[in-house]
Design brief:
310 residues; Rossmann fold
Length: 310
């Protein structure tokens, strides 16, 4: 069934979309659990139209971030109320705002103001800038979309009371590592996951994309400070917060990324830390591509939720 696109984005013909999905599938070359694969979203023309109708600079990362497959796996649909943890510059926010449409809502969740100093390397001016992103999120959304979607911003400690129990999805896309990094010191991961549970409707879902550490990696290295977390540790943290894993996928996996205890995720594209002025190292990191990532879907424990395979 075709979902009509209600915003400015153009509707692509099925033949064009099929070719696009085929190219995405060939680039991904990956198989996912629940029979999820890159061809499985051929019918989601509205989402594909939004993803494709972006700047070439934004689309350049699509083959490695796979937004159509990822949001389809998370079962995000137009009109939903969605919270995005740590939206940053809005790479996913642009897609979400234009896909959810006027009937939907999009909320950006930032770190607590008290968390920024824990990093130890941000200047007071930079901390002020990063904290200001919370209140500025509706402005960012308005710049990225003309759908008139409802938008709001808050931190993990300042969610409005009237949002609790009202959201369809909470998304943590490459957003868990620093929360885990400061969990022992400040309880940041527990706070974030407990908030997600509270914000969701009873049948709401949490979608996770996270840089994945090897299962046999040193626990101290895989605490989030290098950007990577073990998949089992992420699942346990969600279970502790009252969630249950209902599906996992390998759509964002990258078998070329095999980090050791001397590696950080930011050595890879798009950051390329340590390789900017070293052509040989840059070429090696670009050959690996973006990180190996887990893709997980959670529901509230005991909730009756229909999770369909794609």
């Amino acid at each position: 069934m075709l979902i009509k696109n209600k915003n400015k984005h153009s509707i692509f013909t099925k033949s064009v979309l099929s070719a696009v999905f085929a190219s995405i599938a060939l680039a991904a070359g990956l198989h996912a659990s629940l029979s999820t694969n890159a061809f499985a979203h051929d019918g989601n023309q509205a989402l594909a139209g939004v993803v494709l109708d972006r700047s070439a600079e934004k689309r350049a990362r699509d083959t490695q971030r796979r937004p159509v497959q990822t949001l389809s796996f998370f079962q995000v649909e137009p009109g939903m109320r969605v919270a995005e943890a740590l939206p940053g510059g809005g790479w996913y926010s642009e897609i979400l705002a234009n896909y959810l449409g006027k009937e939907g809502a999009l909320y950006g969740i930032n770190y607590n103001d008290s968390m920024w100093p824990l990093f130890g390397f941000f200047t007071p001016e930079r901390i002020e800038q990063m904290s200001a992103r919370t209140a500025a999120f509706p402005t960012l959304v308005a710049e990225l979309s003309d759908t008139g979607i409802t938008a709001g911003g808050f931190t993990f400690a300042t969610a409005p009371d009237d949002l609790h129990g009202s959201l369809d999805r909470v998304l943590f896309i490459r957003a868990l590592h620093n929360l885990a990094r400061f969990e022992e010191q400040a309880g940041t991961l527990s706070e974030a996951l407990n908030l997600a549970n509270s914000l969701l409707k009873e049948d709401g879902l949490v979608g996770v994309v996270q840089h994945r550490a090897p299962a046999d990696a040193d626990d101290t290295w895989a605490d989030g400070s290098a950007g990577y977390l073990k998949q089992d540790d992420v699942i346990k943290a969600f279970e502790k917060a009252g969630f249950e894993l209902v599906a996992s996928s390998e759509i964002n996996a990258n078998e070329k990324d095999k980090p050791t205890k001397d590696d950080m995720v930011w050595r890879l594209p798009p950051s390329l830390n340590g390789a900017q002025d070293d052509p040989q190292k840059r070429k090696a990191m670009e050959a690996i591509g973006e990180s190996d990532r887990m893709t997980l879907l959670f529901k509230k424990q005991g909730a009756e939720v229909s999770v369909h395979s794609h």
